[in-house]
Amino acid sequence: MKTSPSLDVSGLAYAYPDGNQALYGVNLQIQPGERVALLGPNGAGKTTLVMHLNGILAAGLGTVHVGGLAVNTEDKDALREIRRRVGIVFQDPDDQLFMPTVREDVAFGPINMGVTGAELEAQVMQALELVGMADYADRPPHHLSFGQRRRVAVATVLAMKPEILVLDEPSSNLDPASRRELADILRDLDITLLMVTHDLPYALELCSRSVILSQGTIVADGKTIDILCNDSLMAENRLELPFGFDPKNTLVK
Amino acid sequence: MKLSPDRVVLDTNNAHEHGHGVGDHLYVHRHSLVHDLPAQVKTVAAIVFIFMVVLTPVHAVGAFAVYLGLVFVVVKIADLPFPLVLRRMLIEIPFVLFAVLMPFFGPEPRVEFLGLSLSQEGLWSAFGILAKGTIGVATSITLAATTRARDLLQGLETIGVPDLLVQIASFMLRYSAVVTDDLSRMKVARESRGFSATGIKHWKVLANSAGALFIRSYERGERVHLAMLSRGYNGTIIDLYKPVVTKKDWRTAMALPIVAASIMVIAWITL
What residues of chain B lie within 8 A of the CB of A37, using their CB? Predict the structure, then answer.
């Protein structure tokens, strides 16, 4: 039996109510277990695309399927399942964390899915252990460091046992050690992953495949190392490597 | 590796542009005599006009009809759509609701109407509140629709409203969009985890969100203040871009309250 792709975006176009069109026909397939980096300059439509993956925005044209299930913003029950399947970690952990304790925050999603009792507690603690934050379960989120808050934000969606984990700028505002710790955590997760990032070395480190979104369409799709080494492609899409970083000299596992 | 996808262009002709700034959702952009007057001139004219209306004796029914006519003339000159003004006037309803009760509880003498015993004095009071309220609201709506929020604040400052109050109001205006954005991002993050508020059992979550939003806004306030201090803020914001007000502006704007004042005086003399 052929398994359906974790994520299947087809011909997705979207314009904001003010008439600004952000997506001009996006096609993207991600197979189970893949780790994919979504690259692109500011204003390319990356965030708009992410908002379609779990039905926060409704497609103007085209379709999104998650694990074979269509995203349909009209169908409330299906939408609930979609939001369980697509775990989005937003850029600012403070947007995601608002409950009095870490435990309650991580439990928030599973409770919305109807999980209760011992199963809930198990799911919460398992998610916190995956990000190495189990010892902080009873602390208020706003007393944690930024890196810790980002990890708790990851736990809040892992607790929902998603089909695909979507991270919006996971390495932004992290100090190098927190950045590496998060990379270790993400690499060890057995999950399909889509990572929106400007941090190209991070993309190279974690994702063997990358796609470039530019002016509302996917303009490149291939091995991360090939994309980063293609100077003309990089320049066309306003992508730049950090000073002194040469992907050709990097050992990629 | 490199792809050249077809671009799907959506038909966005039905979309509407939000062309003006923060807090300006009441403002209706037109080029008219009323729009062009400086904010403080309009504000003073509107306030004096409302005072004249309030000072008019309630029994002078004709005077109120003329006042209402005057406001409509201004709306006409300002080229505002009447349906829009009428719709916005609905905001008055909760405030005048209790006026409806006055005829039932007012003192003697009473009049019979449709089998109801109504107090004559109560009827007059109800009419007074309704008429003065309606004219006041219509005037304020016209002012708000013809003046940008920031000009209004600047105008208030030039006519002597305490600087601190104006600053607080300006910051409210400046940051309302930021706080609304915060709120909507938190809402998106909540919904992404499968939450949608439907009833009373979700109030705890909403209360937690409100608390988190309050703390974030409070902290942002501190950061903004710190950033202002580090650029030399010492309690006053110096405004270099004050609009020039001419005598002609004052004459044009004060025409409305002066007419109203004459009507008010005539009403007192003839009654």
Answer: none
Same domain, B177 and B80: no
Question: Which chain B residue's Cα is nearest to A232?
Answer: B2
Query: Does B18 touch chain A if contact means CB atoms closer than 8 Å?
Result: yes
Q: Is A210 exposed, middle or buried (0-12, 13-18, 19+ CB in 10 A)?
A: buried
Domain, as residue range, for B172: 163-229
Examine residue B95 and state whether it is found in any structural domain, yes or no: yes
Question: A21 and B12: CB-CB below 8 Å?
Answer: yes
Q: For residue B178, count other CB atoms closer than 10 A to its CB.
A: 13
Say how far apart CA B44 and CA B46 lie, in whole Å: 5
A242 burial (CB, 10 Å; 0-12 / 13-18 / 19+) is exposed
- Residues of chain A numbered 65-124 and touching chain B (CB < 8 Å): 80, 83-84, 86-88, 90, 92, 94-100, 108-109, 112-113
Q: Are residues B51 and B133 in the same domain?
A: yes
Instruction: State whether the Cα torsion B174-A51-A72-B196 is positive or negative.
Output: negative
pLDDT in tens, A25-36: 999 999 999 999
* Nearest residue to B144 via CA among B35, B235, B45: B35
Based on the fold, state whether residues B58 and B134 are members of the same structural domain: yes
Provide the β-strand partners of residue B90: none
Residue B114: burial class (beta carbons within 10 Å; 0-12, 13-18, 19+): exposed
Distance, CA of B261 to CA of B52 (rounded, Å): 6
Let me know if B197 is exposed, middle or buried by CB neighbors in 10 A (0-12, 13-18, 19+): middle
Q: Is the Cβ–Cβ distance between A35 and A202 less than 8 Å? A: no
| Same domain flag for B97 and B115 | yes
* Same domain membership, residue B141 and residue B262: yes
- Whether residues B88 and B193 share a domain: the answer is no
> How far is B224 from chain A, CA to nearest CA, in Å?
18
Residues of B with Cβ-Cβ distance to A233 under 8 angstroms: 1-2
Query: How many domains does one find in chain B?
Result: 2
Q: Is residue B27 part of a domain?
A: no
User: What are the pLDDT digits (tens) for B77-112?
Assistant: 999 999 999 999 998 888 888 888 887 777 777 777
pLDDT at A37 over 50: yes
Give the up-direction half-sphere exposure of residue A144: CA atoms within 13 A in the CB hemisphere: 25
Say if domain A7-249 classifies as CATH 3.90.226.10: no
Alpha-helical regions (H) of chain A: 46-53, 76-85, 93-96, 102-112, 117-130, 146-158, 176-188, 200-206, 224-229, 231-236
Q: What DSSP state is assigned to residue B93?
A: H
